[in-house]
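Consider the record:
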Amino acid sequence: MDVNTTEFSAPGKIILFGEHAVVYGYPAIATAIDLRAKSSVLDSSKQISTISIPDLFQKKQFELNQTPLPQELTALKFIVDSILRNFELKKNFDIKIASQIPSSVGLGSSAAVSVAMVASLSSFFGKSLNLEEINKLAHESEKIIHSFPSGIDTTISTYGGGIYYENGVIRELPFRISSAYVVIINSLIKRNTKDIVEKVKKKYEEKQNSIKEIFNNIHEIVIDAEKALIDENLPEIGKLMSLNHNSLKDLDVSHEVLDKIVNVLDKNGALGSKLTGAGGGGCVISLFDDFTKAKDAIKIMKEKNLQAFLSTFTTDGVRNESN
């Protein structure tokens, strides 16, 4: 690779257990997956600095001093401005962003892009940041997009591996399951996370006791899941995923299409399946211990005109791809 180019990648994430209940102080478990976003920074041959994201804007390059920039680039412009201001450096460059992670479906795509870009741009200027600094700046940029992000996404993209999150406290959850295959299915149903969270909040206010019971069930699942993950007990992890999905159905945050996807996967060799993230659309995740069955499941989903990806858990966080 050209010596005047730096390139870093960062992973996406899935929430394995604990959606929605986590908002009310209960624990959740999330992990990095091997779908990655990549940021490349190279010397500009022009007297301007630019950014291009073909996944969002085909064949279009934006000047970073252009105003106004599209809303989708506001957070990334914040990263550029922060790095240039903190390092007091002047040099023209081109940033190119590419991602394997579908956007706006709860897989942490924006966080992965932010983390990769912070790492690549700072390294380009010869001022490499440590992981804590990368995470901090990426998290600040995420606030522009999501207002009050928990920090789960940028933490996982920065450090990789699994985490246990409870009441704002993130701790590492060490597990390494090389024999597991995760199939991710994008239902292609658009949903608004904020609206779904508000819907749950209204239910909680109206029927606090019954909703608390569901949250307590999810809490027990998370506790059992932590042990199963550490023990690498795939059948138990799959079983708990299915139980968690049923609890989310009880919470009325699933969708009939998500439920149909779960049923089809479970009938075709999955150890367990569930929605991941806010629900109401977005993605389903499904666990397999057999590569052939996982590939067959992807084929079935694609025949139904859905997006499907094969992934694995990963301990790799942000990574230098320049060499």
In short: The chain is about 40% helix and 25% strand. The CA atoms of residues 37 and 99 lie 4 Å apart.
